[in-house]
Structures are given as structure tokens and as C-alpha cells.
Amino acid sequence: MALDAEVAAGAARRGAAPRVARKSHFRMQVWATWLVLALLLAWGCRALQLDFGYVAQKLPFLLGLRLGPDGFIQGAVLTLFVTAVSMVCALGIAMITAAGRLSDNPVAFALATFYASLFRGTPLLVQVLIIYLALPQVGVVLGGLTSGLIALSLNYGAYLAETIRSGMMAIPLGQREAAMALSLPRWLIIWKVTGPQALRLIIPPAGALFVSMLKDSALVSILGLWELNFLAQSYARASFRYMEMLLAAALIYWALSIVFEIVQFRLERRFGRGVAVAARR
Amino acid sequence: MRTMLFLLLALALVPAHAGATLDRVKRTGVVINVLLDSYPPFEFLGPDNQLAGFDIDVARAFAAKIGAKLQLQTPSWETIVGGHWQGRWDICICSMTRTAERERSLSFPVQYYASPAVITVNKNEQHIKSAADLSGKRVGVGNGSTYENYLNRALVLDGQAVVSYPFHDVVAIPGDETINFRNLALGPGVRLDAIVSSLATATASAAALPALKVLSPTLYAERSSVATEKGDPDWDALVARTFQELKADGSLAKISQKWLNMDAIVYGP
User: Fold this and answer.
1) Closest by CA position to B177, among listed B134, B154, B208
2) Are residues B33 and B129 in the same domain?
């Protein structure tokens, strides 16, 4: 199980002697602590006198197992869809922007820097509303979904661009020079030499960004998208069962985040192979 | 960034049809009503996970009358009242009050019900008996609602300032109305001292939250209108005519009977 692998990696990170007994001891204590924390959380929730029947009744809708009244996906499925599409778009935007930020061309640098500053310097909520409300006034009428996707992509693209740039800049110049001395073409240097090394540094902060994007996707509910947060609040209002619905939504967001974290951990391990091997020697 | 620009350009080339609402409804056979999911008993998500309430049933009756299919959309209130719908939505049967401010951005072809504004307080509240006692109190109102304008002494209804303000220095606290009611139920003055809202939403909330009490003297009568995008008089005329018919054939009265069984509320144009 991936979580277990993370615990094992935690044991390794702590510089424990590579003896199996030490490792499994650490692992056991981590799981025990998590169990205690989970029990505490459950006990705290019990004090709220929740109506689990209502949660069970609404859960399939919150999870998005059924389509919305207009036949479109809803709930957690829509949340995931919005996050996944925005993630891909943001990644593309970020790579182009990072290239611009590192470019010798003054126009490319200026464009990329301007964009990154603008979208990092204004609140996401404001961007969502401006894209939805202002663009129609110049003749571009976008639907709620498209507006939300564009806003999320542009906002997170700006942050991600800086993450990518910092990763690229952290690679010593000698690596590129050595590759150039071997007369490797430019794209191959990025693909095989500097890129993989930079990815090791980029993946942890990028993973954090994507987890944060998953939760920020709740902002698109103001455009009338029936995603997880929208449904939870709507059911809460209709039934006056706020705690049940908000806690259920929070738990679903958390579960999704954990999946993201596991993926991030796997990628981290994959791109950290070289360093891990070097450290063991 | 570059790809996004191309995408925007491509979308900009698709012709936007602002204004001609009637043409669009005729062509598509669909009428899109924009409303909220947060205004029980007028508009909310019902037990069967469909939007339900007074306004939804009125919208259904309206769509059936003009022979169109009804579609509902639920963006946030501030995106609706700002106008500039640009053909996104055809009509707002959404309990909107016609005010001088809103008339600048929207058209109001017909009124369809009138409801008094009331004060709701906590059951344990000792001091607030009428509007005069609201001075210096923290009073919850819906985000961007006419009740907010009322507390700020700036409400202009039907083109004239007929409302009196027997209070001063009220702290209006705008927010989600249903969350405001919950806050008030926590106790008098805990988060709010009172709430000003429509009689219908106040009554529904007091039924769900026994800690609340609706004060009996009403503040002023407020008429809710149907809103449309500016610039299509033919559509507005059809809307007005259809609502006259809905009143004449008793449909409005039947729907109101179902959702808001109250004498204080008057229906029809």
C-alpha cells in the first residue's frame, strides 16, 4: 500500500539504521498515532450529534455517482474533472511561462513576467468573476464551466511557472555545460540532463499546488457549477443539516487530497532515485 | 498563455447574440431561467435532488404556457443582478425586487407577487420589538438584497422612496440568508441581534429553527418582479402577457397555495 511505503520512506529519511526491526518499529508507531488521531476526530464529530442517515442518503450525489438534473456530471466527479482539466492546462501554460521567464528574449521575458505577476497578485475569486462577467462585455460569452477552467488554469499556471523556473535554476550550470561539451542538441539536454534533475525539485511543490487547486475548485460554484462544495451547501441549506453536509464534503476533499499526495510521493520517489542511491553509498 | 489567447480568439469569433431573447427562445425551444439554490421556500434543492420551490413551479408554468422547455441555472446572486447577461439566461423568475438601481441593468416586465418585509429575532430577545429598536444593532440581511438597502436607508421601490426608517446606525451584516438565520438561532446578540427578510423565508426558517421568532408588525410591502435582459421589448411583452394569463387561470394561486400558505402575500401581476 502506498501510504505504507510513505511510512517506510519516513523511517529511511530519519537516518535509522537499515535494519528491518528499527523500520517496522517506526512504522507501527506511526500507524498507532494515526489511529489515535482518527479516533479523536471521530469522537469530536460524535459530540456534534450528526444525522448519519441524511449523510448516507446524500452521499451518492455528493460523490457524483448520479448525474445532475441537467444531465451533467456533478459533485466530486465534477470537482475532479475541473481539477484534472485545469491541471493539464496549467501545466502547459506554466511550461511556456517558465521558458519565457528564463528566456534571453526581452519580449518573451516581459510577457511571461507580466502574466505571472498579474495572476499571482490578484485573488482567484476576483479572477473567476472577471473572466465570467467582464469578458461578455467585449463579446466573449463563456459558460460557467469554461470560465472556471480558464480562471483556475491561468491562476495556477502562474504559480506553477515559478515552481518550474526555480527547479530549472537550481540545476548547476556545469550540468548543461558538460552536456554541451558532448555536443548534445538543446532539446536533448533539457529532456535527458537538466529536466529530470529539475523534476525532482519541482514535484513536491507542484504536488502541493495541485492539492490546493483541488480545494480551490470550490470557487467555481459561484458560476453555478454543481460541484462538491455547491451540493454540500445546497443540501445543508435545504435541510438545515449544515454540519453533516460540510463534514461529509470535507472528508471527501480530504480523501481526494490523499490520493493526490500518494501520486506525488510515487513521482517524488521515481525522480529521486539517483539521489537516493547516492545517499545510500 | 499563447494557447489560451488562441482559444479566446476562437471563442470571440462565435457570434454573440445579445438582446434578441425572443428569437433565441423561439429558435431553441428552450427558456433558461436563472435563479438561486439558497432561498427556501422559493428556490432550493429539494429532497429528490431537483431544484424546487415557488419560483421553480412558476417558471415551469411559464415555460409550459409559452410552449418551451425549461432549463434552470444557479450562479451566484451578484452575477445575476449585475445585468449584462449577454444571452446566457432568458429570464429571472427569482423573487427579485424592482429597485431604481437594478432598473439600470435589468428590465422588469411584470410583478408576480408581493410579500412584506419582517424582522426576525431570537426567542430570548428582550429589547427588539419593532424597527425603531434596531438602532445600533447588528442585523443580518441577504447579500446584495433590498433589505440591505433598507437598513442603509437607501431603498427606492417602484421609483419612489416610500419607506420610512425609524432607526439609525444599524450595522447591516450581509451574508447568506440561511446561514444568518442559523447564526441568530445561537442566541440574541451572539452573532446577530436580528434579521430583516421576506415574511416567507422568515416563516420557513422559524419553522425549521424553533429558537427564532418573527415579529408581527411588518416593515413594508415589497413586490417581486420577473427580470429580463434589457433591450427586447417583444420578449418583455410576451412575459407580461403570459403572467396575466397565469394569474387569470388560477395557476399562480395554486402554486402559492402549495408553497407559501400565507395571507400576507399577494399574488399576481
Assistant:
1) B208
2) no
